[in-house]
Amino acid sequence: MNEQSTTKGFAILSAAGMITKVLSLLYIPFLIHIIGDVGYGVYGASYQIYAFIFVIANSGVPVAISKLISELNAVKNYRDAVRSFKIARFMLVMIGIVMSIILIAFAEPIVSVTHYKKAYLSIVCLSPAILFTAVASAYRGYFQGKGNMTPTAVSQVIEQLLNIVFSLIFAAYLMRYGVETGCAGSTIGTSIGALASASFLMFCYSKSSRFIVKNNFNENIKRLSRKQIVRKIINYGVPITLCVGMTYAGNIVDVMNTKVRLMAGGLTDDSATILYGYLSKYQQLLNVPIAIISSLSAAILPAISAAAAIKDKTRVKNSINYSFRLCFLIAVPCAVGLAILSEPIFDLLKIRGGSYIMACGSSVLVFMSVMQIQTTILQSLGKLYSATIYSVIGIACKIVVNYILIAIPRINILGAVAGSIVGYAIPIILNHIMIKKSLEVNVNMVTHAIKPLISSIAMGILVFTVYYVLDTLMGFISTGYIPNALSTIAAILVGILTYIFVLAVIGGITNKDMERMPKKITKLIPNFILSRIN
């Protein structure tokens, strides 16, 4: 349970995030096979509603725990660090209980407003997970405040594995009673996984007893009253909850008006539900690279906060520029790759239908990534409420775009993608103005995107060529899943090497970047690429 370095902690959380997101993708075809396309649409709607309640209950206080514990440990006030955790844990348990009851009590009105009446049982079955995840979040905040990311990472993997296994088992068993009951079964694993995760974290906490009180009581240390601790938790937690909640509110907008506007365009109830299921698959795929951006956000927050606290504008500017640079280095090639290989990837994962949404809307990934980094920067600068207001403006614009475009038959579900682009683009512009005004520094995001874009275009051309040449040649031997899988995997590997090579040639990555990367990753890079890096 040793305190870990920032780099190692970032690597551990990134790895866990990627594993859980990939696992969540791999079980989609099995779930669709069990509950069908209509059932998956219902499942997607119920999960978006759950996710919104989840972030309201779990996004702010765990971050407050982490921040408060790290601050108190820094001044060697270990007793109050433990008291803060216990107080925050109690608050989270109470919030979890209240939000679980609210989700059950208002399940029927929610499904009526969102026009997904078949999602009623699914939402009720998801309600216990709110309480269990609240407990788990408290312990995750504690360990992150201690600088130990391993329990959080392991608990995430345990939660996802059990979620998948039990969701599939209960969905298969309960489908005999109808689609609505089968969809409810597919959500039971969420509560079981959350309970197991919370139990594991509680076990880790009990084993780390040497952290409980590391020092004898010291009269020279200024102690905090219970009221002061509660006030700090609220002051840290509420702005973050509002900001993250507004981001997820955009998904609720999709749940509420997508189906209604599709039906206004002439589609039947089931057809509209299936198309919403396609949108859910697309969003699930985007969440895989977003997991890396989330880890990046967690890593850059302390650096920018520290620089802003000592009013070191040069360091702040350098940190912000570096974060945007990394953001584009990750997001741009992922967006290009997903667009070009959308259909082969959907076939590889055996996800039926919706690949055209990814082909048209992969650029949303870049907008999501930039906005997430901007929000993190504004967090570190104490401008959270501004970020929240801008998110609300973006959501309002998204509603308007969705309302107009989705009902047009030739556009239908792609109108939601257009709405997302507008919904992210407007806050990005406003956030950029606020960052520039707050720091009085010029941050040119376009400059950071040029080299990744050039490298991604070269990568995209080669990926397209490699895939279709291999797929055509293998087509003479056999057809079906295997030729597509081999061609897709080969194209992805060639794409990765091409992207890194072109970046190295045009100066998109430097020796300093290599030094910051874990050695296990740099060892995987071929020497002919390393020799090109200046």
Description of the molecule:
Pfam families: Polysacc_synt. This is Stage V sporulation protein B. InterPro entries: PG_synth_SpoVB, Poly_Biosynth_Transport, Polysacc_synth. Its main location: membrane. It is a multi-pass membrane protein. The protein has 534 residues and is an all-alpha fold. The chain folds into 3 domains: 208 residues, no CATH class; 154 residues, no CATH class; 85 residues, no CATH class. Helices cover 83% and strands 0% of the residues. It has 21 helices and no strands. Helix 6 runs parallel beside helix 8, helix 12 packs across helix 18 and helix 17 packs antiparallel against helix 18. It is globular, with a radius of gyration of 24 Å. The N terminus is likely disordered.
Write a brief structural summary.
With 534 residues, the chain is mostly helical. It has helices spanning 6-26, 28-58, 60-74, 78-105, 107-114, 120-145, 150-174, 179-207, 226-264, 269-309, 313-340, 342-348, 355-361, 364-380, 384-405, 414-439, 445-475, 481-506, 511-516, 519-522, 527-530.
